[in-house]
Amino acid sequence: MLCSVRSSLRKTAKKTKEHIKTHFPEFAHEVDSIPIKSQQELNAAATVLQAITAYVMTNHWVAPSKSAFIREIDQYIEQHLSQHITVEDICAVLHIGRTKLYEISMDYLGCGLAEYIRKQRIARAQQMLLQTNASITEIAFLTGFSDYNHFSRIFKKIVGISAREYRKKQS
């Protein structure tokens, strides 16, 4: 029975090769050079490739690029940075559920969505501290913080120094 299964697989592979050669003659040479392998050999090769991929990703030798979806999240946050942004707002705009949004943010942004928004706000505040003469209180409100003291705590936590020290140090 095993011999008949192998024979059947070889016939199917040959038919597939002939189909490709007929419909895609530019690949005829490449198709002829592909050896026919057993299902067991293909499964072993797939397992090795999965292990290598996991190793490479775990060691951060490569990282997935931001998807168009993540760029949409960034764009929404950028456009609404000075406003109160809620997860519900982002979910509604992007037509996605909360759970999926949280999963995506953890996988692609490396942190929760609220933390990511805070980091984006602080990054904008850093730019404004260097590029404008606006007061730190104004910058806090322009970057979506409704309370100056909260802004000061978050800024120092993320940047390591106060906003005032940051402005002095960078100028």
- What is the averaged pLDDT score? 84
The total count of strands amounts to 0
CATH architecture group name of the largest domain = Orthogonal Bundle
CATH secondary-structure class of the largest domain: Mainly Alpha
Helix-residue proportion: over 70%
Distance from first to last alpha carbon? 81 Å
Q: How would you name the oligomeric state of the polypeptide chains in this document?
A: single chain
DSSP summary: helix tally: 10
The Cα radius of gyration reads 27 Å
Please give a handful of descriptors for the protein shown.
single chain; 171 residues; mainly alpha; Arc Repressor Mutant, subunit A; 2 domains
Give a written overview of the molecule:
It is built from ten helices and no strands. It has 171 residues and is mainly α. The chain has two domains: 57 residues, no CATH class; 103 residues, Homeodomain-like (Arc Repressor Mutant, subunit A). α7 packs across α10. The radius of gyration is 27 Å and the shape is elongated.
Task: Offer a quick outline of the entry.
The protein has helices at 2-23, 28-32, 39-58, 68-79, 87-94, 98-109, 113-131, 136-142, 148-159, 163-170. It has 171 residues and is mostly helical.
